[in-house]
Amino acid sequence: MQKISPFLWFDNQAEEAVRFYTSVFRNSKIGKMTRYGEAGPGPAGSVMVAEFELEGLHFTALNGGPMFKFTEAISMSVDCKDQAEVDYFWSRLSEGGQPSQCGWLKDKFGLSWQVIPEALPRLLGDPDAARAGRVMQAMLQMTKIDVAKLEAAYAG
After folding, report:
1. pLDDT of residue 138
2. How far is it, in rounded angstroms, from Cα 84 to Cα 156?
3. Integer angstrom CA distances of residue 83 from 80, 142, 152
4. pLDDT mean across residues, the chain
5. Which end of the chain has fewer CB atoms within 10 angstroms, the N or the C?
6. pLDDT of residue 1
7. Phi and psi (nearest 5°) for 88?
8. pLDDT in tens, 138-155
9. Tens of pLDDT along 20-55?
10. 3-state SS string over 70-129?
11. Is the backbone of residue 37 left (phi > 0), alpha (psi -120 to 50) or beta?
């Protein structure tokens, strides 16, 4: 059992979001969906709470109404092994959403994601400050992370 898990508050798109996220991540599954009854407060038959799993991480989604919105203060980080994975996740998660800077994007539900290749923390963490600085400067110019450009900046 997972001790801590993300709980995502949606206005009324929890079921759509769960279906979308489980279509993006290959190792995923939809769990129990609890629906509102006649007593509400949501429309009868609509999802109240949905459980789902992405890459072994358990999530809960709630249709709680429009009172709260996602902000960039919380984001989901997707670790990618290479540029092909970056390209895949960036393309899928940004569908209908909004790209941002340095590998960040908001999906069509307003949830923020970081799509990060394994090369980025390795290159940024290099003990050679000049190399790491060039990588940082290159990254600051990017929306989607481009591993080849990071490596070129690293090499000088």
Report:
1. 98
2. 24
3. 8, 14, 14
4. 97
5. N
6. 77
7. -60, -55
8. 999 999 999 999 999 999
9. 999 999 999 999 999 999 998 989 999 999 999 999
10. CCCCCEEEEEECCHHHHHHHHHHHCCCCEECCCCEEECCCCCEEEEEECHHHHHHCCCCH
11. beta
Position 40 scores a pLDDT of 84
- Write phi, then psi, for 4 (nearest 5 degrees): -125, 135
30 with 23: CB under 8 angstroms?
no
What distance in Å separates the CA atoms of residue 137 and residue 82, rounded to the nearest whole number? Answer: 20
Mean pLDDT across the stretch 78-106?
98
> Position of tokens 């358990």?
58
For the chain, the first-to-last Cα distance in angstroms comes to 47
Angle at 80 between CA 79 and CA 85, to 5 degrees: 145
Closest to 12 measured CA to CA, from 54, 41, 39, 32: 41
Question: Can you say how many angstroms the Cα of residue 36 is from the centroid of all Cα atoms in its chain?
Answer: 27
